[in-house]
C-alpha cells in the first residue's frame, strides 16, 4: 500500500505555511532560554484530556497548550497562560488565549483574549512578556537559579 501523492502534497508543510500557535510558543520558549542562559525556560505543555489533547469547544475539537516558565535547577514552574485553538486543518484561528489574572489586570484586559490571526497572537504575546509581573517572575527565577549550585537539587521543597 502506498499513500497517494495528493495526500503527501497536502499534509507536508509548505515553506509559506504560517507557523502553528504551538510552534510560535516553542520559539518564544527558546528565546527565553537563550536570554537567561537557560536558567529559565519557556515550556509548552500540551494539556492532556480524555481525548488525548483534544477537547470540544463550541462543538469543535480543540488543542490546548499551557505555557509555563520553568527554572529546571530549582524544579520550579510558574503557569503563565494557555492557548486553545481549533484542530481544524484549514485554520489555527480564532485562538483563545487565557492569561494569569495579575497580568490581565496590569494589561487592563480580560483574562480571556481572542486572537483572530497570527499577528494578533504575536502582539498579545509581546504584551504578556513585557508585563511587570512576567518580568518579575523571570527575574526572580533567574536570580534564584544563579545562586543554586550547578547540578545540585534545591534543598527547598514545595509545601
Coarse structural class: alpha+beta
Radius of gyration, Cα only, in angstroms?
A: 18 Å
Task: Report the count of strand segments.
Answer: 6
Q: Can you tell me the number of structural domains?
A: 1
Shape: globular
Residue windows where pLDDT falls under 50 for at least 5 positions: 152-159
Average per-residue pLDDT, rounded, comes to 82
* Helical residue percent band: 25-40%
Largest sheet: 6 strands, antiparallel
Number of helices: 5
Describe it for me?
This protein is an alpha+beta fold and 159 residues long. The chain has one domain. The protein is built from five helices and six strands. It has helices spanning 5-11, 21-35, 101-107, 118-130, 132-147, and strands at residues 41-46, 54-57, 60-71, 76-86, 95-99, 112-115. Strands 1, 2, 3, 4, 5 and 6 form a six-stranded antiparallel sheet that branches.
Brief characterization of the structure:
By secondary structure, this protein is of the alpha+beta class. The protein is 36% helix and 26% strand. It has one domain (19-146).
Map the helices and strands:
Blueprint: H1 5-11, H2 21-35, E1 41-46, E2 54-57, E3 60-71, E4 76-86, E5 95-99, H3 101-107, E6 112-115, H4 118-130, H5 132-147
Antiparallel strand pairs: 1-3, 2-3, 3-4, 4-5, 5-6
Defining key terms:
159 residues, 6 strands, alpha+beta, disordered C terminus, globular, 5 helices
